[in-house]
Structure to design on (236 residues):
């Protein structure tokens, strides 16, 4: 459902990523782990078509992100870090706007707004200005917008950054629920996130994949903290 094939991104002499390759099959929740500046966000932007790679190919559900963009984007939901929201809108207005932009029929849009409102627990704030909402609720609005068109694949960049412990718990519970029916790639540098939601870890450092396996395999021989430092600390 997600394929990265030799993705590299160069800025003059600086390589943000080098030959990043991996695939994620249907129904898997994968934590994309790495320290700050490792190349996680750059890779995700290439996978979602927001950034063109210098080399390599990205596919979503079998469709090339650049040559078959409309087909790929119809199957993808992308939640960037600090995802953009129109602060003057209400969550209801925002969802209607994005639904119409995607060409959804009026009936389907009503049904999907009702579904994502319940799924993301937005009922109490549906008609309040987004500018007045807490960061936790804004994150839920972003998640609802991502889920609106029922994508098969979700790519989320640091979805719990800046949230309080209760909000983090709620978002992780939602991710686990979504993981039952969706393919998810979740970027994070928080090790507890990996243990809480993921069945597989892809660890990137200095623009290269340095580990791909289960959380248990990563933790073997000293724990996840020690493995993370061993694989990333020396280069950093």
């Amino acid at each position: 459902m997600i394929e990265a094939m030799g993705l590299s991104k160069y800025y003059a002499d600086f390589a943000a990523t080098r030959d990043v390759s991996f695939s994620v099959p249907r129904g898997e929740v994968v934590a994309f782990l790495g320290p700050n500046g490792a190349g996680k966000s750059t890779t995700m932007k290439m996978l979602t078509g927001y950034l063109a790679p210098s080399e390599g190919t990205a596919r979503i559900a079998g469709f090339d992100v650049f040559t078959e963009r409309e087909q790929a984007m119809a199957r993808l939901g992308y939640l960037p870090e600090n995802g953009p929201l129109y602060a003057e809108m209400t969550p209801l207005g925002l969802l209607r706007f994005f639904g119409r932009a995607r060409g959804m029929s009026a009936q389907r849009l009503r049904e999907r707004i009702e579904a994502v409102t319940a799924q993301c627990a937005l009922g109490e704030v549906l008609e309040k200005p987004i500018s007045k909402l807490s960061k936790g609720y804004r994150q839920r609005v972003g998640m609802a917008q991502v889920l609106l068109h029922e994508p098969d694949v979700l790519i989320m960049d640091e979805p719990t950054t800046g949230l309080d412990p209760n909000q983090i718990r709620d978002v992780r519970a939602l991710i686990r629920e979504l993981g039952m029916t969706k393919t998810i790639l979740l970027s994070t540098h928080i090790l507890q996130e990996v243990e809480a939601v993921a069945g597989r870890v892809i660890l990137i450092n200095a623009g290269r994949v340095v580990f791909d396996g289960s959380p248990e395999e990563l933790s073997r021989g000293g724990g996840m903290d020690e493995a993370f430092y061993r694989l990333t600390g020396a280069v950093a």
Observations:
- The first helix runs from residue 40 to 47.
